[in-house]
Amino acid sequence: MSAWINYHAVWKILIFGLLVGAGLPTLFAVGVRLNAEGAGGTGDATVAHRNPVLGAISSVIFAVVLIAVTIAVLYVARDFIGQHTGAYILGAKHN
Fold this sequence. Notes:
By secondary structure, this protein is mostly helical. Helix content is 69%, strand content 0%. It has one domain. It starts with 6 loop residues before the first helix and ends in a 10-residue tail after the last helix.
């Protein structure tokens, strides 16, 4: 560890940033693609075959992305929420 840079923390931030910064949009794109496949929207427009399994999988993927984004926003605002509501969530510090 350098006096100026904490390399262990830099690697944690880099890995987490890559997972969330690239992983969530990729997961959302897969959900959109599966939703289109499940609705019969890809391929020949005259013959549309619905696949409810792919539609259900895409709904689960969308739910995972929505939950991850909601938790991230709550994590960022946890001190504000704790100060104004008294609900100290996600490790917020009680002042």
